[in-house]
UniProtKB/TrEMBL annotation, chains A, B:
Signal peptide: none annotated. GO terms for cellular component: cytosol. Residues 6-67 form the HTH asnC-type domain. This is DNA-binding Lrp family transcriptional regulator. GO terms for biological process: regulation of DNA-templated transcription; response to amino acid. Gene3D superfamilies: 3.30.70.920, Winged helix-like DNA-binding domain superfamily/Winged helix DNA-binding domain (1.10.10.10). PANTHER family: LEUCINE-RESPONSIVE REGULATORY PROTEIN, TRANSCRIPTIONAL REGULATOR AZLB. It comes from Pseudobacter ginsenosidimutans.
Length: 155, 155
DNA sequence: ATTGAAATGTAGGAAAC
DNA sequence: GTTTCCTACATTTCAAT
């Protein structure tokens, strides 16, 4: 499968779907002055080729009792392939961990942790995260307020 | 409008839609052993009451030329309401800024910045971020690798 | 690759329980 | 609040360009 470049029409479709994937092909077609069948075919290809990874519902975290978001910076003892792989595998299993990135700089990983409150975070920290092997330090920062939070990349 | 509590059925619907919002009501109904109309009504309510904020397409950032993700920690000169509000308002206007959170700890804000590469980040930093008023320091960390990245809260 | 039109399936609304 | 029924609309396929 040749990975064709995206044209302006593809990009416009992606822009729209990143913001609202509940729009119908008809509405998208009308915005972009194309036929419904063409939009359908383009969207099918964008999914098939992996540009669109998935379509998800974004919830209001405060309404579902995930009021506390923490960013936790983790430093490991060493950086052997084994140590890194073990940490990544184990930390990914925790449902509280929504994101885990290996980073440049003075620590190794940054985690985004979602819990209901500080008690739940504390429990996660003591009984899950801090029990993983080879951790030197964990430094946590908590979200006070959310100024902007979007999933759409600027394209 | 009374904000009713969510029952197990609501939570199951939210769990499913957080992972795949392209499923039809029919498929959800079959998974949960309920009728399509019931699922339809529950989903309608979950949207109306704001539990579901929006439905979006998640793209593969590397395929759309957003290979570089930075987390930037920002410290401001002061914390008057005016200074905070101005920073929040202005930084939110930049399309590269996908997230902005005010934080506890040794800095004021954490930003998630998406750009194509280090040159583009540098340009963003010098010509946009660093030009905002009242910034004391910006410390940036870059994603080396993505171990886990989901939008679904654990519920 | 794009289109209009046909066929299929789903969403959305109404009425009864 | 749930179910069944019904209509409108959306998706999907296809032949033609």
């Amino acid at each position: 499968m040749a990975q064709a470049e995206l044209d302006v029409f593809d990009l416009n479709i992606l822009r729209i779907l990143q913001k609202d994937a509940s729009l119908t092909n008809k509405e998208i077609a009308s915005q972009l002055n194309k036929s419904v069948a063409t939009v359908h075919e383009r969207v099918r290809r964008l999914k098939e080729q992996g540009y669109i990874k998935r379509v998800v519902a974004i919830l209001d975290r405060k309404k579902i009792n995930k009021s506390l978001i923490a960013f936790s910076q983790v430093l490991l003892h060493d950086h052997t392939a084994e140590t890194l792989a073990t940490f990544e595998r184990e930390v990914s299993k925790f449902p509280e961990v929504m994101e885990c990135f290996q980073m440049t700089g003075t620590f190794d990983f940054i985690l985004r942790i979602a819990t209901s409150d500080m008690d739940a975070y504390h429990d996660f920290y003591r009984n899950k995260l801090a029990k993983l092997p080879n951790i030197t330090t964990v430094q946590s920062f908590f979200v006070l307020s959310e100024t902007k939070s979007i999933t759409a990349y600027p394209i």
